[in-house]
Amino acid sequence: MNRFGLLGKNISYSFSQGYFTQKFKALGLNDHSYENFDLQKIEELKNVLTQDNLRGLNVTIPYKQEVIPYLDELDSKAEKIGAVNTIQFSKKGLKGFNTDAYGFKKSLEPFLKPHHTHALILGTGGASKAVRFVLDELGIANTYVSRSKKDGQYTYGELDKDIMEKNTLIINCTPLGTYPNIEDKPALHYQHIGPQHLLYDLIYNPEKTSFLAYGEAKGATISNGLKMLEQQAEKAWEIWNNA
C-alpha cells in the first residue's frame, strides 16, 4: 500500500483528500490511499511518522511552520518562504517543500494587469509567506495587514481610502469566511474598492466568500483559491513521485 495524507487541525472538510482519492481512482492506482491526519497539536506528528507505508504528506493550517523542526531537509524555496506544505519521504529522510507558491503564482498570473503594482496581504500565517514570496518574485510591492500593530505592516483600522485605492491587489490569507462561517469577512472599507481592484481569496469553500462577493459588487475582478489548490496538489504529486 502507498499511503499519502494531510496534516492539519479540524480538517474534515479537506480538499486534498477528495482530490487525491479521485486522482488515484482515475489513474487506476488501487494500491494508493489518501487520508486526513487531524492533529490537535504538532507533537502528535511523531505517532503519524511511525506508521507504515507513508509515501508523502501535505500540510495545512496551522502546521506549515510548526512542522519544520520535524524534517531532515528543506527545499531552497521552502527555506526562503519559511513554510512547508508538502513532505517528501525518501531514503535520506523527510524533505519539506512549498508548492503553495507555485500554485498561487500559476493561478494569479492570468488575472494580473499592468496597474496591479501594489498589494495588501491579509493575514500573516504560513500561506501568506508563500504569497509574499510570489509577489516579490513578480515585482509587486506588498504589505501585510494584521489585527495587531507591527513594523512594516498595516492594521485593518489604518486602511483608509488612499491605501485602499493604491493597493489594487488584495489577497485574503485569513480563514475568515470559510464554511460554515460564511458571513465572516476581513474588516475592510469595501466602499473604497472599485473596477481597478483584483480580489483573490485563498479560501475555496464557499466558492464565493463574503470578501469576494463584496468586491464583485463594487466591480472588482475576483478569484477564489481552487485553482491554486489544484496546481499545488499536482506539484506535490510530482514531488512525491520523484522521491
- Low-confidence stretches are none
Order of helices and strands: EHEHEEHEEHEHEEHEEHEH
Q: Please give the order of strands in the largest beta sheet.
A: 2-1-3-5-6-4
Number of helices: 8
Average residue pLDDT: 96
- State the end-to-end CA separation: 16 Å
Q: Based on CA inertia axes, which overall geometry fits? A: elongated
Q: What structural category characterises the helix and strand content? A: alpha/beta
Main beta sheet: 6 strands, mixed
Instruction: Please bin the fraction of helical residues.
Output: 25-40%
Strand content: 15-25%
Radius of gyration: 18 Å
How many beta-strand runs? 12
Short recap of the structure:
By secondary structure, this protein is of the alpha/beta class. The protein has 8 helices and 12 strands.
Q: Could you walk me through the main structural features you see in this protein, from its secondary elements to its overall organization?
A:
- The protein has 243 residues and is an alpha/beta fold.
- The protein is 31% helix and 23% strand.
- It is built from eight helices and twelve strands.
- It has helices at residues 15-26, 45-49, 76-81, 100-108, 126-138, 161-166, 210-217, 226-241, and strands at 2-8, 32-38, 54-59, 73-74, 86-90, 93-97, 118-122, 141-146, 154-155, 169-172, 198-201, 221-223.
- Helix 1 (15-26) links the parallel strand 1 and strand 2.
- Helix 4 packs across helix 8 (226-241).
